Amino acid sequence: MNPEQINTIAEEIIQLYVQHGADDYVGEPVSQLEHMSQCAVLAQQEGYADDVILAAFLHDIGHICSQQKRAEESMDGFGVIRHEKVGADFLRSKGFSERVARLVESHVPAKRYLTFKDPEYYNQLSEASKQTLEFQGGRMTAAEATAFEQDDLFNLSIRMRRWDELGKETDQPVVELAQIKEMFIRHLANQ
């Protein structure tokens, strides 16, 4: 990819956040941009590299990049069914690393895993997150959990899920989209 193509892709994604960032974050007290921004900040505060920070910022992009939000693709008003797959495939198509795409894709299985492994985790979920869990396959089975634990991104996927749950605070500053765009550009240039 040449620099012009990279800049075009980065700008296209930023525009998704400009257009849809103020949208309600599926039944939570924050917007899409506020939620994704908080997740990225949490990853950054823990000292993770740019690819993980980007994955944290982009983990729910499947809710806003889907051009066709038909009724059968909705979780009863709680966002797009399989948004993790929609988002990961979108990022792959734009040239993001497989690591970023897999981290985006894994945040829903991590929720299913944690609800299987830790019953208290389920009790801590917001009502919206409990509702979406049913559309996402519910709690993992023992066999699914064992397989998920073998994934090389398992620990990081669990961190991503924790950030996802924590990133729902009101009145938090959002990241500068210009800084995120620069991270996109650097990331894409290295692929």
Description of the structure:
By secondary structure, the chain is mainly alpha-helical. It has a single domain (3-190), classed as Hypothetical protein af1432 (Orthogonal Bundle). 65% of the residues lie in helices and 0% in strands. It contains 11 helices and no strands. The protein is globular. Mean pLDDT is 88; it is low at 67-72 and 74-78.
Topology, element by element:
Elements: H1 3-20, H2 32-45, H3 50-58, H4 62-65, H5 83-93, H6 98-117, H7 119-124, H8 127-135, H9 142-149, H10 154-166, H11 177-189
Helix pairs in contact: 1-11, 2-3, 2-10, 3-6, 5-6, 6-9, 6-10
Descriptive terms for the model:
191 residues, oxidoreductase, 65% helix, single chain, Hypothetical protein af1432, mainly alpha
Please provide a brief summary of the model.
With 191 residues, the protein is mainly α.
- Average of per-residue pLDDT values: 88
The name of the CATH architecture is Orthogonal Bundle
Query: What's the CATH H-level superfamily name?
Result: Hypothetical protein af1432
Number of strands: 0
> How many domain units?
1
Per CATH, the class reads Mainly Alpha
Q: What's the alpha carbon Rg, rounded to whole Å?
A: 16 Å
User: Do you know the CATH topology?
Assistant: Hypothetical protein af1432
Largest sheet, strands/sense/barrel: none
Oligomer: single chain
Order of SSEs: HHHHHHHHHHH
Low-confidence spans: pLDDT under 50, at least 5 residues? Answer: 67-72, 74-78
C-alpha termini separation? 9 Å
Structure annotation, total helices = 11
Alpha-beta content class: mainly alpha
Helix content: 55-70%
Overall outline: globular
**What fraction strand?**
under 5%
